[in-house]
């Protein structure tokens, strides 16, 4: 049974108009397959470089169109249960900005929008009724240099603590040994206070509180609304070798990491190091020499010999004892980029962008992870069955070159169980029903 959601946001969500002939272009290039119980539809093509998406309090969708700027979309398609009619009836570029490329967040009152470039997080004053975005200003600086290796900076305002904003930065390079010094401000996520940075722009290097580090490139952040727990998804390294043997086809695992509560600064998670660059988690132990005798099972941490020497700090045992373990693992090189929870906490949805470093290619889908009443994933950390595929490319043999590559997720505030996702490679917005 579904109903329109009361969002708790300051302004009222406008009802959806009936879809009409005025729907904007949604010409399907790639066939998609939905698992039983789900349906999916392309709702907008020609959304160049589609990355971050968030709903504003009036029910318009704001998107980062990388290389273009902030785009505001008006949706139609009734408020009922039929995905067939969902479409976009209007689009406005509300802030032309060639440099913003991924990160996007909106204050719960809808009056401030945040977006990130490689170097800077910017804020705009935003009017949810007209869509006007004005008074662009930098609020966090020193996030990196142009053309560095991992160029996105994810922004996340946790619903439990809306006066805070999480800002993530990845490593520069596949192996970035400099990330073992937190002062370098890479491969981590920091917490900033929105009130404080509004008053005075903050340097990412010298301010903010580290929530987690040793995170190679944890692009996706989410919060379980029933527990307040913070979770992230991390992209593991490419071209991994172990004892000189190429193990990259099945290793390392992509990770789901647990970060606890934002107000529990004494928890083992708060400020923890998750292992990068010395330690990763195993996905296919059978490819790793001597895995059994070293207790390297699925999900177990093991030493990365391309960054550590295997003795003392940087041994397998040190990785397992001294670095915070992943709570769940996924198949290698799927490049998870976002995680968003159902409001009842029973599942999280994860986008798998896919990468180039695996043959045959894998990822390019949206998946579900089931959570129990204790707020933890139902599957154990050693499981290789935690990912439940929801929507994927019908034929992924043309990936990553030509296919749908899911990036960011946003729950529809109009209809429960409806979630939108972007695909940057194909320049599209899709919707999933039944989520
Ligand atoms: C609609 O989008 C497709 C896919 O991007 C494009 O090939 C086509 O030219 C577009 N059609 C119109 C009328 O803009
Ligand atoms: C959904 O709407 C389409 C178009 O109006 C219609 O053809 C289809 O039968 C509807 N499906 C359901 C399950 O109501
Ligand atoms: C980075 O690129 C932006 C936009 O092109 C430019 O304004 C800025 O000066 C560049 N910064 C550096 C350090 O090259
Ligand atoms: C954020 O900063 C403001 C102003 O200093 C302060 O009142 C508020 O308590 C801070 N919020 C948190 C969660 O620390
Ligand atoms: C964190 O906040 C929640 C309410 O949001 C509260 O129930 C809990 O006791 C707090 N925990 C700590 C450690 O302060
Ligand atoms: C990282 O450190 C390891 C161990 O000192 C070294 O072998 C490796 O060359 C370094 N990698 C890079 C990219 O600097
Ligand atoms: C291995 O690396 C650790 C940590 O950097 C260091 O303490 C140790 O001396 C190194 N051992 C050898 C044999 O190089
Ligand atoms: C998938 O796409 C490839 C490349 O276009 C094609 O050769 C193959 O026949 C397709 N497979 C199916 C099942 O359609």
From TrEMBL:
<dbReference type="InterPro" id="IPR011041">
    <property type="entry name" value="Quinoprot_gluc/sorb_DH_b-prop"/>
</dbReference>
<dbReference type="Pfam" id="PF22807">
    <property type="entry name" value="TrAA12"/>
</dbReference>
<dbReference type="InterPro" id="IPR054539">
    <property type="entry name" value="Beta-prop_PDH"/>
</dbReference>
<keyword id="KW-0732">Signal</keyword>
<dbReference type="InterPro" id="IPR011042">
    <property type="entry name" value="6-blade_b-propeller_TolB-like"/>
</dbReference>
<protein>
    <recommendedName>
        <fullName>Pyrroloquinoline quinone-dependent pyranose dehydrogenase beta-propeller domain-containing protein</fullName>
    </recommendedName>
</protein>
<feature type="domain" description="Pyrroloquinoline quinone-dependent pyranose dehydrogenase beta-propeller">
    <location>
        <begin position="33"/>
        <end position="433"/>
    </location>
</feature>
<feature type="signal peptide">
    <location>
        <begin position="1"/>
        <end position="21"/>
    </location>
</feature>
